[in-house]
Amino acid sequence: MLLSPLLVAAAAAALAGAGASCPVLCACRAQAVDCSGRRLFSVPPELPLDTGNLSLAHNRIASIPPGYLACYAELRVLDLRNNSLAELPAGLFLAATRLAHLDLSYNNFSHVAADMFLEARGLLRLDLSHNPGLRRVHPQAFRGLAQLRDLDLSYGALGALSLEALEGLPGLVTLQIGGNPWVCGCTMEPFLKWLRSRVQRCSSDSQLAECRAPPEVEGAPLFSLTEESFKACHLTLTLDDYLFIAFVGFVVSIASVATNFLLGITANCCHRWSKASEDEEI
Ligand SMILES: *[C@@H]1O[C@H](CO)[C@@H](O)[C@H](O)[C@H]1NC(C)=O
Ligand SMILES: *[C@@H]1O[C@H](CO)[C@@H](O)[C@H](O)[C@H]1NC(C)=O
Ligand SMILES: *[C@@H]1O[C@H](CO)[C@@H](O)[C@H](O)[C@H]1NC(C)=O
């Protein structure tokens, strides 16, 4: 009598064939597991093995255990929006070969480390926006993301962005960079040039991107800067300039030696001449 409901439950679990059942506090439907807004401080330990969409959004998760995604090869969408994450464990995406959308917005990342997404080769969309302390993106941060189409880096604390980080993204279509305190000095020039050259393919939230420094261009839209704005950056001397300066210096020093010599001779002559005329007078 007591046994039969248990048997039914066991049979149901076996039929589902999905290993772990839906985690407590989460809602599961089809392949989607929704654990958003449940005040979670840590990730649910086990998920159905066929999980395709996982939302852990709007919680207080501060870390993800290493290997957390190792069993979920079907995972396509991972939503970690609005948590307290500052880093991801190495190799998190090793088994998540199908992962296409990753949302890390509204977290606590201060930098994007090298090779952070290296194994997430199928990633199409990556959202790192609204990480208010995000200051640094490693030049190799996005290595491996050959298919990435949409990258959102808006509303962080970025003053600069290494061109190398973006050049490794051949499939990039949209790039959001607004709401960052961009420093529009000389180092901005190559970045801006790259953005302009990609503007057809790469739609950007250009109006929102503003310069925070240097003072002369504070508040100016990034895209209002022209080649003229960077003219001072090109006031460097070429080899020809150095040779010319060296030559002029050489000529001037020879000339001054010669002038001194002539002056010396003249003075000497005058002295003798005046002495001679004094002698004559006496
Ligand atoms: C999974 O997420 C994608 C993208 O967010 C969404 O379009 C799709 O409807 C979701 N699937 C389920 C079953 O919730
Ligand atoms: C973040 O989650 C909290 C609940 O944990 C919610 O009150 C808040 O509105 C969310 N913020 C955003 C920007 O979604
Ligand atoms: C964000 O990280 C800093 C340290 O880097 C920490 O002091 C702070 O409490 C974190 N904030 C949240 C909301 O987790």
Describe the structure.
This is Leucine-rich repeat-containing protein 55. Helix content is 26%, strand content 13%. With 282 residues, it is of the alpha/beta class. Helix 2 (163-167) links the parallel strand 9 and strand 10. It starts with a helix and ends with a helix. The structure holds 2-acetamido-2-deoxy-beta-D-glucopyranose (NAG) (3 copies). One 2-acetamido-2-deoxy-beta-D-glucopyranose is lined by residues 30-32, 53, 77, 101.
Question: What key attributes describe this structure?
Answer:
single chain; 282 residues; alpha/beta; Leucine-rich repeat, LRR (right-handed beta-alpha superhelix); 2 domains; 9-stranded mixed sheet; two-stranded parallel ribbon; 13% strand; disordered N terminus; binds 2-acetamido-2-deoxy-beta-D-glucopyranose
